[in-house]
């Protein structure tokens, strides 16, 4: 393992970094020097006249470059990092680059999706190829003008130089270059020669964000646009029987009330009027399917775990025999609740459906799929549908589904008017799609001081773990190994939530291994390391994780966290996990304040391959860790009679700023192509925190949210 790159990150440094990234010092400097005659205002790259080169690149006569970022931006930083890949190989100065969000373009772009932490992984080579190809075409055009061989030319920061010292900027030859044949097999840079990749680059939208410039879906406006607030069933399993819109139509600003399917849309000239009109509606609902409750879900899922109807997702050896011959068997059940996504920006979308075209604008993680579904819904050809992506105020999987976009399109079609559907916070929390409630039962057999068997059972609402997960650790490390899954079909809509399934499975698994090591009387870290030795050199192609890389992040986290050497009163918990192609180890430091655990610091070691933008990467890591702490400690959505019992932050707790710890981030230096980063740092933190709480209190935690299940009175006098 190579040396790590150490990034210290705390609340104080976050505020400091944010002010710098937001241009605070730059603004101050500009104001201070504005009176000096020699000071020139910076060039506004967005206002230049750019010449088309290809779908990704435009070049101005001045040699400045616009690079289009193809993938949806949900705060993960791809609008900055994906253009960095192109700019690196294009060989331009980053200060000469203007970045613009690309629209949906299924002809020129591929995989315009924000999900699974895969954008950079899939874009790593194609985007670099795009930049390198463009660079070579520009060189070829310059060489043709000079009458020299392209191999005699060099490029630096957008300037092409020949052997005789002649120089041409990209802007001088862009039109000629765009007409040339596209070269094949262009050479990509060696990572040691990178000048942009690996540098800390500020978010390209940061100035607009801190100044409140229109960037997000909620900012979008169109002349004559109406705002729509939609009344949906108050409880899952209900359908609309009848409604009275008399009072709603009397609200000032309300223009129309439209029923579509089992919903009612109130259209108005402002969001306030639309939401006020919706509240004035009266509606009668009929229970069409059973009204479900949290108590019922608990009963159903426990029944599945205790039953025998499972789908076996992986089976090695004979688990039943291993358990029957064991000296000891440890079995534990872990429970997690439903969770809403709670994006900062509630769901919204704009649609303008006319006879000729369908215009869509808004925040969506799956633009192509959403456009296709809307075309089917309206019985239109896909070629008639255009979709413009805005920046998103969070996604976390909620914006994969596009139900809100389909609502906007359907209402616009019926109203024959441009419409923006806007969710309230209450709409957002009660309308689905949630992380499903899941229970895991994990058992291990011990014989002669060795783990001989491992059996994982999952019982989930609606769906089960995706197919790769059974091949994560400890698959391959234990000879008798089995993963079974069962589910209960619910009328409550569920779906992907940041790091689907692994977000809680990692907590359960790593809590279990901590307890297992204690039962066996062995060191917690050494137990993991010993198991990993059994996977090294495996020929099992199903195994997803890399044992050497998992071992590497473990050792790095142990070293950087001062594991086992903290001051008195500081308790540490450890967890390690692989998901989304990335290996992560975390150590949580907690103290007890008035008998309650307080997380003070998290040390996080990450092997995600080459780090494209360390500044953006550290933001991703810290965000994942803090999000994981918040939801494992506090997050819970319950149901009664089919109705969510929380609809806003007065009754649903997100982590608060005074509850966030210092997060120290350490990246393993690597020459491996980038892997995922948006999701992998969230899953292990729940286990690290649970194990630290056990060290402090002696209480094992089997159910999230932890703060609801600590019962510390029995532990602490």
Explain the overall architecture:
By secondary structure, the protein is an alpha+beta fold. It has three domains: 46-210, Aldehyde oxidase/xanthine dehydrogenase, molybdopterin binding domain (Aldehyde Oxidoreductase, domain 4, 2-Layer Sandwich), CATH 3.30.365.10; 217-288 and 347-422, Aldehyde oxidase/xanthine dehydrogenase, molybdopterin binding domain (Aldehyde Oxidoreductase, domain 4, 2-Layer Sandwich); 310-325 and 434-714, Aldehyde oxidase/xanthine dehydrogenase, molybdopterin binding domain (Aldehyde Oxidoreductase, domain 4, 2-Layer Sandwich), CATH 3.30.365.10. A hairpin with a 4-residue loop joins strand 3 and strand 4 (65-69). It is globular and about 80 Å long. The protein has 18 helices and 28 strands. Helices cover 30% and strands 24% of the residues. A seven-stranded mixed beta sheet has the order 11-12-9-19-16-17-18, with helices on both faces.
């Amino acid at each position: 393992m190579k040396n790590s790159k150490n990034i210290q990150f705390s609340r104080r440094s976050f505020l400091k970094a944010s002010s710098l990234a937001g241009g605070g010092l730059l603004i101050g400097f500009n104001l201070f020097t504005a009176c000096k005659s020699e000071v020139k205002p910076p060039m506004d790259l967005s206002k230049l006249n750019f010449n088309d080169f290809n779908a990704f690149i435009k070049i101005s006569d001045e040699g400045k470059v616009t690079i289009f970022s193809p993938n949806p931006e949900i705060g993960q930083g791809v609008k900055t990092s994906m253009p960095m890949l192109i700019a690196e190989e294009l060989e331009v100065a980053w200060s000469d680059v203007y970045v613009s969000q690309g629209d949906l373009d299924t002809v020129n772009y591929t995989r315009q999706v924000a999900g699974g932490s895969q954008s950079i992984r899939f874009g790593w080579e194609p985007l670099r190829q795009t930049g390198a190809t463009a660079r070579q075409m520009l060189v070829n055009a310059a060489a043709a003008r000079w009458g020299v061989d392209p191999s005699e030319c060099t490029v630096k920061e957008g300037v092409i130089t020949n052997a005789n010292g002649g120089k041409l900027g990209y802007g001088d030859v862009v039109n000629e270059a765009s007409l040339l044949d596209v070269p094949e097999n262009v050479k990509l840079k060696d990572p040691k020669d990178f000048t942009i990749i690996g540098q800390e680059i500020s978010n390209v939208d940061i100035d607009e964000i801190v100044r409140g410039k229109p960037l997000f879906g909620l900012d979008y406006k169109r002349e004559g646009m109406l705002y729509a607030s939609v009344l949906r069933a108050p409880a899952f399993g209900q359908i609309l029987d009848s409604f009275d819109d008399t009072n709603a139509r009397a609200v000032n600003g309300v223009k129309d009330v439209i029923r579509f399917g089992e919903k009612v849309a109130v259209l108005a000239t402002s969001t306030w009027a639309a939401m006020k009109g919706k509240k004035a509606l009266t509606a009668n609902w009929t229970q069409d399917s059973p009204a479900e409750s949290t108590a019922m879900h608990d009963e159903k899922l426990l029944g599945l775990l205790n039953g025998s109807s499972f789908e076996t997702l992986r089976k090695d050896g004979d688990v039943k025999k291993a358990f029957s011959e064991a000296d000891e068997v440890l079995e534990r059940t872990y429970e997690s609740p439903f969770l809403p996504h709670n994006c900062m920006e509630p769901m919204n979308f704009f649609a303008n459906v006319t006879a000729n075209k369908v215009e869509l604008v808004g925040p969506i993680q799956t633009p192509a799929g959403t456009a296709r579904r809307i075309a089917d819904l309206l019985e239109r050809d896909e070629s008639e549908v255009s979709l413009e992506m805005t920046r998103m105020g969070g996604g976390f999987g909620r914006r994969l589904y596009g139900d809100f976009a389909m609502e906007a399109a359907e209402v616009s079609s019926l109203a024959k008017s441009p419409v923006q559907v806007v969710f309230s916070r209450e709409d957002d929390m009660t309308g689905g799609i949630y992380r499903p409630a899941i229970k895991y039962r994990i058992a291990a057999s011990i014989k002669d001081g060795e783990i001989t068997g491992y059996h994982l059972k999952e019982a989930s609402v609606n769906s089960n773990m995706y197919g790769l997960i059974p091949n994560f650790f400890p698959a391959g490390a234990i000879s008798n190994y089995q993963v079974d899954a069962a589910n209960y079909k619910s009328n409550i809509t569920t779906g992907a939530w940041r790091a689907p399934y692994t977000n809680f499975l990692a907590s359960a698994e790593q809590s279990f291994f901590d307890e297992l090591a204690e039962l066996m009387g062995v060191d917690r870290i050494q137990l993991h390391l010993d198991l990993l030795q059994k996977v090294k050199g495996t020929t099992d192609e199903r195994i997803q994780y890399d044992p050497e890389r998992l071992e590497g992040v473990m050792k790095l986290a142990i070293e950087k966290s001062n594991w086992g050497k903290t001051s008195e009163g500081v308790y540490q918990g450890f967890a390690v996990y692989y998901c989304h192609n990335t290996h992560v180890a975390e150590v949580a430091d907690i103290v007890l304040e008035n008998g309650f655990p307080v997380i003070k610091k998290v040390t996080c070691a990450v092997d995600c391959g080459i780090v494209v933008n360390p500044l953006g990467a550290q933001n991703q890591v810290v965000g994942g860790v803090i999000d994981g702490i918040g939801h494992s400690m506090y997050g819970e959505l319950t149901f009664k009679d089919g109705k969510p019992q929380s609809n806003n932050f007065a009754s649903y707790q997100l982590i608060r700023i005074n509850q966030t710890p210092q997060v120290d981030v350490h990246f393993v230096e690597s020459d491996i192509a980038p892997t995922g980063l948006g999701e992998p740092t969230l899953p292990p933190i729940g286990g690290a925190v649970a194990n630290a709480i056990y060290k402090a209190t002696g209480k094992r935690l089997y159910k999230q949210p932890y703060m609801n299940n600590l019962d510390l009175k029995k532990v602490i006098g």
